[in-house]
């Protein structure tokens, strides 16, 4: 395994653009989540969240044979002990995925009492706020290696 510093030298500039498209798809998936389309404008993401997620996704993709092009991303939103799947994004649909990333975003816990009904059928009036904390789970699809879980 190469040291982390050497992996930076292998960085593919095309991965930057691809990662931006993946994160755009993440934002779109959050807007299409079971909360209804009119809630999209009311979802609030802390500014550093996507920047930190981008850096982590790119770091995990660097050691892969196809880089970010080989990523299959599952997006989940966690609240309490429940985790809701929001979408699945193939970074490059023309490439057979070589690894799977599960990006688990967390709701801002300070709002939990106000948003308990958010994922149900009842009305919810509080805006959805995501925490800056998230978790990324990496699973290699071509290897029997164990899962890698990164907490950020």
TrEMBL record:
Listed transmembrane segments: none
GO biological process: apoptotic process; negative regulation of TOR signaling; response to hypoxia
Entry's Gene Ontology molecular function annotations: 14-3-3 protein binding
Key words of the record: Apoptosis, Cytoplasm, Mitochondrion
UniProt entry tagged with the keyword Mitochondrion: yes
Subcellular location per the Swiss-Prot or TrEMBL entry: Cytoplasm; Mitochondrion
Entry GO CC: mitochondrion
Family matches, as Pfam families: RTP801_C
Domain of life: Eukaryota
PANTHER family: DNA DAMAGE-INDUCIBLE TRANSCRIPT 4 PROTEIN (PTHR12478:SF7), DNA-DAMAGE-INDUCIBLE TRANSCRIPT 4 PROTEIN DDIT4 (PTHR12478)
Family of this protein: Belongs to the DDIT4 family.
Protein's UniProt name: DNA damage-inducible transcript 4 protein
Lineage start: Eukaryota, Metazoa, Chordata, Craniata, Vertebrata
Gene giving rise to this polypeptide: Ddit4
